Amino acid sequence: DEEHQRVRDQFHILTEGDDLPPPINNFADMKIPRPILDYLKKKGIKKPTPIQMQGIPTAFAGRDIIGIAFTGSGKTLAFTLPAIMLALESEARLPLVRGEGPVGLIICPSRELARQTYEGCQAMCTALKESGEYPEIRSLLCIGGINMADQGDVLNKGVHIAVATPGRLMDMLDKGRLNAMNCKYLCMDEADRMIDMGFEEDVRSIMSHFKFQRQTLLFSATMPRRIQDFASQSLVNPVLVNVGRAGA
Ligand code: ADP
Ligand code: MG
Known about the structure:
Blueprint: H1 2-10, E1 13-16, H2 34-42, H3 50-60, E2 65-69, H4 75-93, E3 104-107, H5 111-131, E4 139-142, H6 152-157, E5 161-164, H7 166-174, E6 185-188, H8 191-196, H9 200-207, E7 215-220, H10 225-234, E8 239-243
Parallel strand pairs: 2-7, 2-8, 3-5, 3-6, 4-5, 6-7
Antiparallel strand pairs: 1-8
Helix pairs in contact: 2-5, 3-4, 4-5, 7-9
The protein binds adenosine-5'-diphosphate and magnesium ion.
Residues 75-76, 189 line the site of magnesium ion.
């Protein structure tokens, strides 16, 4: 559609793929729960960035995504928000029982990044919970150096979203402390760094724990050959969303 393409052009959003979902250039039209919208507004997040305009509706549509956008362009929200929405949808359909989950899994190349991502996700989940209008969405941080007993309550009740580093996640999956049997959403953040750091085998092994057909998202600041190869092996009919700096 010409109007959709006009919006993409205006915000320097390059796309590739079949049946592209339209970009949406305001949060209000994205069917985001009111408490999350209010929380974002309070944080000064009022208008979606270009990667969010195209990435969030594409993720909501259930599509695999390769999202390329420069550092600081708001990639984190583009994959955490859809994970939370998926968790809400899943909870409405079939609530998690004791020990189940996660439904969504986000993998980051470093502990620091995992922690930041988890905290942002957790803040949105808290906003949902405090509204009293939505079910509780529980997230878990799986990184080395964290005592899992501190999060035992979340593990026991069932985890909706796990934010993890590859090594720790593999360990938890292998020991059966977490299982990916109900997982439908897998996001790799900073995929370029992840592959550079040699985590590719770990990620493949993590993928082998999935039982359901999964939605796979890959976010990165750059798109080297190895990411393209990895994506072509691990993603299904993906939508490529590439946001350049204005004029770049
Ligand atoms: P990236 O992962 O692409 O490098 P981040 O997701 O870490 O970028 O976001 C960078 C900063 O921009 C964060 O402080 C985040 O809170 C903020 N941010 C994200 N989305 C928006 C938005 N739509 N409007 C304003 N600020 C935003
Ligand atoms: Mg980032």
